[in-house]
């Protein structure tokens, strides 16, 4: 199969939206790992007085992680899937959390313009057609010194990493999703990871996009070597080679 992109991917997520939370709940540590990555974003004071953009919020799991770690932040959560966003917005949220429907490639048209003190993107970058352009856009949305956190399936590069990922997808995730009518989306999930960057390559991609202080941090548990947190910063003006 070819990878799902743009409108086809959004439609697949629309179809899966009402079952999505149940499927991810079966993933050991899913929500704890998102909170770990949100902490690694490194924003101070529990986010008090800060503005954070949650890109690709889905049904709100990443938004919940951000509100747990940064209870004082104003959080703008964005997703391209109307079905996923409807599920997210229907949940109880503290004041300061808002939801906007927009593809990540058309944020400005939806009124998402920044500047933000932090941008968090979970399970997003491997799903976009042009990750380099998206990263350039994200850099432009950050205030100087603003922080980027990416929580993503990026294989470590060892054969065992790909083997474990394939075993989990083909042996557990895909059969369950197929039985629920969402097999195409979860076949995309497997392939989107094996065809995307390794962790080292993605860290280099962040540096090329103009972020500094880039780190690639493994996540524990069964996802070790499969999922990572990446952090980076938009350089301060006097440190920015793009100026």
From TrEMBL:
<keyword id="KW-0489">Methyltransferase</keyword>
<dbReference type="Pfam" id="PF01209">
    <property type="entry name" value="Ubie_methyltran"/>
</dbReference>
<keyword id="KW-0808">Transferase</keyword>
<dbReference type="GO" id="GO:0008168">
    <property type="term" value="F:methyltransferase activity"/>
</dbReference>
<dbReference type="InterPro" id="IPR029063">
    <property type="entry name" value="SAM-dependent_MTases_sf"/>
</dbReference>
<dbReference type="GO" id="GO:0032259">
    <property type="term" value="P:methylation"/>
</dbReference>
<protein>
    <submittedName>
        <fullName>Class I SAM-dependent methyltransferase</fullName>
        <ecNumber>2.1.1.-</ecNumber>
    </submittedName>
</protein>
